[in-house]
Amino acid sequence: MSKTLDTDLFDADSITEEEPVELESVATMPAYGSQEWNDYIMEKFDNRELIDGNPTCAGLRRVAEDVLGDIVSSRPSQVFPSTDANGPGRATVVFEVVINWMNMGELRTFADVADVWHGNTDDLFCAHPVATASTRAEGRALRKALKIRCLAAEELAKKKDIESIVREAVKSDKTTDGEWREEDPISAPQTNFIDSKCKQLDINVVKFINNGKESYDSISQVSKKTASKMLSLLNEYQNKSKKIPESVLGYNANWR
Question: What is the pTM of this model?
Fold first, then answer.
């Protein structure tokens, strides 16, 4: 009788299989700097932290601490204020951010520089060049730490026609006679602006100037007219009216 009872208890037909438990998909962090990394980071910004898809400096701070670790130091390391007594002039700030990497005790420092003058900053912020340059430089340092491929919102100057401003700077350049000649070689201000914009957008200068029909061994072979067109294109990249080709990405500071 005992054996019959045991058999009944373990009759295969009486055993009901449990429903499979569905495990919720867990979002895992991709490898730092990997192909998926940029999209992973950009999804972490709230809508209020984005201006036309560009994260604000405050948003960059929050996401950096959320993903990379506590910010233990955030300060301007060098400040070069304007020396123009008659106007806001140009100010340059070097900013550094120190992060307790993944909160594991390893300190990593990220730094970058920004300058502010009437040619690259909207008038409302141009009145406070040092403060604006500090915020921009901090945003760049945080972008560098987060390894994202976009500008900080504070870096944009949507109300400025930078190409026209550069042209005026070239006209007033003491190395020229003040006359704009399209066939003349690229000027120093144009070269500096191209370098600055390429650095902001993480574009390789040499690849960028050779991305058209012409081929150049040196940027000095570029004409003023062509340089002006290049600056217009960089503006379109910055304002996202045109997409930056993958083939020109990767800024190299030693391109000259």
Answer: 0.59
Range of the domain at 75: 34-157
Query: Percent of the chain at pLDDT above 90?
Result: 47
Return d(Cα 126, Cα 116) in angstroms, integer: 7
Closest CA relative to residue 193, chosen from 145, 215, 161: 161
Name residue, tokens 């002039």: 89
* Domain count of the fold of the chain: 2
| Tokens coding 113 | 């520089």
Q: Which of 232, 66, 239, 71 is nearest to 162 (CA)?
A: 232
Task: Say if 21 falls within a structural domain.
Answer: no
**Co-location of 188 and 242 in the same domain:** yes
* Co-location of 136 and 250 in the same domain: no
The CA dihedral of 93, 199, 239, 71, to the nearest 10 degrees, is -50
pLDDT tens-digit series, residues 121-159: 776 666 788 999 999 999 999 999 999 999 999 888 765
